[in-house]
Here is the input.
Amino acid sequence: MKNITVKYGVDSITKQVEDDFTFGDLQDNDSIKAALGFGDRTKALVDGIEQDRATVIPAGATVRLETAANTKA
Here is the structure.
């Protein structure tokens, strides 16, 4: 288990997660969505750099979620 901090807008929470918890797991987690009030279309950033959904979140990381821009196919 490891602790991570998740920020969305002006809100933030610190959460204990499994060691193999990825950025995609974070973005799909219903309890974190409910706590911070974000939707399905987000991107995860660490130090301003967008992270791939398959990447494991490092212990102690602060992850900022932002609403992703809509794109046309």
About this structure: The first strand starts at residue 2 and ends at 8. The beta strands are 2-8, 11-17, 42-46, 49-50, 62-67.
